[in-house]
Amino acid sequence: VVSREHYISKSLLHHLNQDKKLTIAGLPWLAGATKVLPPSALASGVLCSRHNAALSRLDDFAVRLFQAFDEGKALGSGRKLVHLFNGHDVERWLLKALCGLASSKSLNFDRETDVSIPTYWLELLFGGVEFPEHQGLYVCRSIGEIFYGPHGLAIQPFARNGRLDGITVGVCGYELILSMTGFPTRTIGERNVALRPLELYTTGPNFEKSILFTWDGVADLGTISFQNPGPRPGTDS
Questions:
Q1: Which whole number is the average pLDDT over 147-168?
Q2: Whole-number Cα distances in Å, 86 to 4, 48, 193
Q3: CB distance 121 to 167 below 8 Å
Q4: In this predicted model, what pLDDT tens digit does every residue of 176-208 receive, in sequence order?
Q5: Quick count: other Cβ atoms within 10 Å of Cβ 54?
Q6: What are 140's strand-pairing partners?
């Protein structure tokens, strides 16, 4: 029996929607707009009930990941925060979102683009195999990158060489890139990226934070540094 499932984790969507202002951007059917939507707008019949139950752990994981990236309560607190995650769970959460978008026909590529889901993606999703070399989580590694962290999600699937390849998810201003073919040169356009970093280290107005990832297999490791200047001028968040 196919059950209705949120391809962006249900628990995370409801967490973001506590004030009834869930903000979503980047999906093709939004036509470039940023809109306030209910969590039900991001649900579709994708997997059977048994498989959805098997992946339910990723929903709780997604909330914990978002809370680590969300710095609203950290600004000016004087706190030194440390968060530890299994990096492969981050990859599986991103892959679940990508597969859900593809299965629900929520992509907007041209007809020549192959958006089918390879069998081995599902094997990766359910933990049956490991990501091949160069495939997995990438993060921009420009040192001292300055950004503002909106309280929401920005979602952008992408294709390369005629087929669906990955997804970029912005979480509170941080950019997580999952590529299913990888970037062996460690570049995306003119940007340098790192595969599976060890640490994302952020400093901001009277706080600092480390998000640490554990990895098995190929990983660039290292620390990527960010700077959060605080609320965007003229806003409260």
A1: 82
A2: 27, 26, 20
A3: no
A4: 999 999 999 999 988 999 999 999 998 888 999
A5: 14
A6: 193
DSSP 76: T
Instruction: Give buried/exposed letters for 104-118 (b at 16+ CB in 10 A, else e).
Output: eebbebeeeeebebe
| Alpha helices (runs of H) in 55-127, residue ranges in sequence order | 56-69, 87-103, 119-125
Determine the distance from the C-alpha atom of residue 60 to the mean position of all C-alpha atoms in its chain, rounded to a whole number. Answer: 14
Distance of alpha carbon 125 from alpha carbon 127, whole angstroms: 6
Half-sphere exposure of 71 (CA within 13 A, CB side): 35
Question: Per residue in 28-67, pLDDT tens?
Answer: 667 667 777 665 665 554 444 444 545 667 888 888 998 8
Residues 6+ apart with CB under 8 A from 60: 11
Chain Cα centroid distance, residue 57: 16
Identify which of 110, 77, 99 has the alpha carbon closest to the alpha carbon of residue 167.
99
Query: Of 221, 206, 232, whose CA–CA distance to 78 is shortest?
Result: 206
Tokens of 104: 């629900």
- Paired residues of 85 in beta bridges: 213
Residue 83 has phi, psi (to 5 degrees) of: -125, 140
Q: What are the start-end ranges of the E strands in the chain?
A: 2-6, 23-25, 34-36, 43-48, 80-86, 136-140, 145-146, 153-160, 163-171, 174-179, 187-188, 191-195, 199-204, 207-214, 223-227
Spatial contact of 172 and 149, defined as CB atoms under 8 Å apart: yes
Give the separation between CA 117 and CA 6, rounded to whole angstroms. 18
